[in-house]
What we know:
heterodimer; A: mainly alpha; 3 domains; 66% helix; globular; B: alpha+beta; Alpha-Beta Plaits; four-stranded antiparallel sheet; two-stranded antiparallel sheet; 24% helix; 37% strand; flat
Amino acid sequence: MTAALPDEHFFRRESGRLVSTLTRMLGVHQLALAEDAVQETLAAAVEVWAFRGVPDNPSAWLMTAARNRAISQQRRERTARRFAPEIGRQVDAEGADAGPGTAVAHLPPALRDDELRMMFTCCHPDIPEDAQVALVLSLLGGFSAREVAGAFLVSLAAMEKRLSRAKKVLAGTRELFELGARDFETRLTAVQRAVYLLFNEGYHGASPDSAVRLDLCREAMRLVALLVEHTPAATPTTQALAALMALDAARLPARVDEAGDLTELSRQDRTRWDGRLIAHGLELLEASARGDVVSEYHLEAAIAASHALAPSADETPWADIVELYDTLLRIRPSPVVALNRAVAVAEQLGPERGLEALRSIPDAQRLAAYPFYPAALGELELRTGHVLEARGHFRAAHRLARNGAERTFLDRRLAECERRLGPGAPKAASRPSARTR
Amino acid sequence: MSEFLYLYRLPADSAELPGSPQNMQQRLQKWTAWFKELESRGHLSALGHPLENGGAVVTEGGRAVHDGPYAESKDIVLGYSVVKAKDLAEARTLAGDCPVLGYGGMVEVRPIRQM
């Protein structure tokens, strides 16, 4: 037994790297072949490394083995035979300097570009947004269809269908997206959006498994780091996106505890926030301000920075935050943003004004399945002393809760309502006359 | 102490395979831990080797049958080790912790014939 694996997500990350590079070499129409070769290579690595130990340069080992497999599979299929020697040459040249270090900065530029190009390829305009995110997770993140389905609470069959449809579109493109292409800017916007959605799914998402959610955040941050390190992609908007993720992720240690339970922002132990990530996020935010663009990511990052810089919940600059939300709503109107704004209004001007803001959200019906809408109503009703109404809203939220962490959180709020009501309170807010009947 | 050959077998159509990269990494970690445990308890006579899938079966007259089937089953033999145990019962117990069992495989335990 020799070296240990570099870290617990090594295979996953290598999978994305290998698929990207093989796909560039074989052509995107051979994506399935590349994926098979990578899958088999990883399985073979398990068997060989179990007996022989992990080699000194596991990344190079995998690249060579995957190349050999792709070549022999191609021979077997007797298609594009002429590609084979070319692949061999390319991988020899690149694999040689693929050191054991796995940080983005240590990857040879060619391999980093393969991943970037794959990311841009996945965000093809003919592929719907949700499928782009699924593709990025599957091809670059090394998540299986089952894992992606689990992360988005979609059935495996539905996710397989979504992925295979998207891959059909990809196959039609034949080559990975050229980073120098004329529509680079447009595609970059789609890539930023996909990475943002991926991060959000991890941060606020529905998966019942908190480990999965953290993995999604981590993967999104890895991908945004690739963008930040690649000059043409490192626009102020990309930097703002990276800032937003760093600042939000900094709160994760206090937001989700060991049991996977959620703690709301106002109650978080701020000493558990990650100071390094906050500093990194603030640096990125500053860098992002050099352009003349104010994107939605700038605004969200500025909101996250306001929280990160407040020494305590009471010292949060709520007026600034409400203003940032107002601007954000103008750029990207969304009921979820309006919901967050209403919560900030409640902090700034009191729960009654917050309730008004909540009730006047245009297209609030789009929040019908979102547990945090009734939860916010419950919270503000509770603060105005309408405990029965609050309990009704928390119960509604509980019915919509998508995972154990959300349910546990709402159980605690419901217990708080019961405590305030005391014994002898009516059992249901919606039927106050039940006892007298 | 007697010696036993462990053959790590996997049905070729094992439904559990191939799994996600994350599953595979966990699988590797389990194998590494398992071998380490056998070794530290003095049970590992020979770590053995992983085996390629495929090969040939040679019969009298030099006729070679490629690509199997070599035996009745269509199992893939992933590899083998030689393990020390006091009797078959202990060898079976030790094999019961083998990671291959966790993904649809099995361990064939064969006593090595003594002099």
